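Hi U.,

Before I forget, here's the chain from the pilot set. I'm dumping it here mostly so it's searchable later in email.
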Amino acid sequence: MATMLDGESYLGRVLIQPLDEAGDVTIYLWPVRCLKSKMGGPTFGVDVKGEEVIRYDPHGPRGHWHRGGYDKLGAGGSHVEFPDDVRDIEGQITWSLDQIRENGADMLAEAGFPDAAKAFDLDKFSTASTAIKERLAEDPSLMGKAIDQGLINA
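Structure:
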């Protein structure tokens, strides 16, 4: 799972799910991640043996995602904007999960993890995707709490 950074706040219960039989490929979710810049929202990503490869930051108009090896390339080197027509948090979550389902193995291979790409299990991803949606639905007021606490600007 990605490292929690000093100065950032995290609300909600973290979720980690395996995406392969061995448990070397995992997906994590922070239900609400509040950045120092006062933006935030859910953050989830795919790790291989603890190295973060893909990250999605569905944070609304300032949302974005990372490919090619987040830990290897850094935030700036892996940064990708969501498509122009995907600007709201819910749409970004759906788009992101669809990307992992449709292209997860290819993205792992492109980032230099061919064994993880071969081991990527769509059934496990389906289970994890459902778990992510359920965890996000557990406390729909988390974003409001982050705003009320001044952690995220509305």
